[in-house]
Structure prediction request, 42 residues.
Amino acid sequence: MSRLKVLYGFHAVTARLRHDASTVEDVYYDPTRRDRRMQDFL
Prediction:
C-alpha cells in the first residue's frame, strides 16, 4: 500500500525533485503567479 504525502513550498518540492523525482506523481501550481521564482521553477 503506497502512502500519499503532500509537499508544498518551493524548497520542499525542489528538494524532493532533486533527491528522488520518481516519487513525485503530480505538481500543482498557481498559474496566475508570474514572478521570477515560479518561472525558474517551471
